[in-house]
Amino acid sequence: RRCVLEASQQLTEIINSETSAESPEPTREAEPADEEESALHCLWVDKFTPRRYMELLSDDYTNRCLLKWLKLWDTVVFGTEKAVKKAKPSAEAHPPFNQPKDQQSKWKTKVQLTEEILEAELDQHKRPKYKVALLCGPPGLGKTTLAHVIAKHAGYNAVEMNASDDRSPEVFKTRIEAATQMKSVLGANEKPNCLIIDEIDGAPAASINVLLNIIHRKDGEGEAVAGTGRRRRREGGLLLRPIICICNDQ
Fold first, then answer.
1. Hey, what CATH class is 131-220+236-249 in?
2. What would the DSSP string read from start to end of the chain?
3. How many C-beta atoms surround the C-beta of residue 49 within 10 A?
4. pTM above 0.70?
5. Residue 215: what are its φ and ψ, rounded to 5°?
6. How distant, in Å, are the alpha carbons of 32, 89, 115, 122, 247 from that of 77?
7. What distance in Å separates the CA atoms of residue 198 and residue 214, rounded to the nearest whole number?
8. CA neighbours closer than 13 Å in the CB half-sphere of residue 234
9. Number of neighbouring beta carbons within 10 Å of residue 161
10. Within a 10 A sphere around the Cβ of 239, how many other Cβ atoms?
């Protein structure tokens, strides 16, 4: 036993001396090893989560509808008219299918009806008719992932908040206004925010009323002063950023 202990001690001393002599090289290789270990120990949900639009496995129709709605905000947020110009020809491109015109006027597919809704005229502030999108479905369907990926795909900085955590209407209002009115100042490339409100079905009625007031009340104020004071209206807190709400129970 004594001989074995002496031999093991000699081996450990030899190994320690060799590693200390070659210390500059292993430190450089330590970072990839750490990354590999972290990759091995991370959850599969995080490891294989979609990071681009083409990697999404959720319903393609839902993905396209949400992306189309988000692109309607381009006129206000990015100052581009492309989204509106593209929307008009697409509505006219549907009639010349291999179906008679009478049948098309009577029966419209779900896709055509949704596109007509999404291609409705923008309001006087060049915002889409519907200011908030609601994604609903059972847990694990990919609603939050879809919102984040599409926001990033459309050029936004995704800001997520949990409605069931912020129970106070005052805190809820402050967080919504901060996310929809302030720019992201992290990093060199500033991107406009897209607010994602998770678990909206867990929010109290007072918080829901706060959200509705931000959407509707300020809309009415803008219409009352139509034609004058455009700059003053925008500084008054008019909602100029998209909001995506997520819930399990519609």
1. alpha beta
2. -HHHHHHHHHHHHHHHHHHHHT-HHHHHHHHHHHHHHHHHHS-HHHHT---SGGG--S-HHHHHHHHHHHHTTHHHHT---HHHHHHHHHHHHSSSSSS-HHHHHH---HHHHHHHHHTSPP-TTS--S--EEEEE-STTSSHHHHHHHHHHHTT-EEEEEETTT--SHHHHHHHHHHHHHSPP-SSSS---EEEEEE-GGGS-HHHHHHHHIIIIIHHHHHHHTTTS-HHHHHHTT---S-EEEEES--
3. 14
4. no
5. -80, -50
6. 40, 22, 21, 13, 26
7. 18
8. 12
9. 17
10. 23
Q: Where are the domains of the chain?
A: 131-220+236-249
Cβ–Cβ < 8 Å for 198, 144? yes
In b/e form, how buried is each residue of 169-183, taking b as 16+ CB within 10 angstroms? beebbebbeebbeee
What does the block give as tokens for 157? 């900085």
Digit-coded pLDDT (tens) for 107-116: 777 777 777 7
Question: 69-121 pLDDT, tens per residue?
Answer: 998 888 888 887 754 444 444 444 455 555 555 455 567 777 777 777 776 66
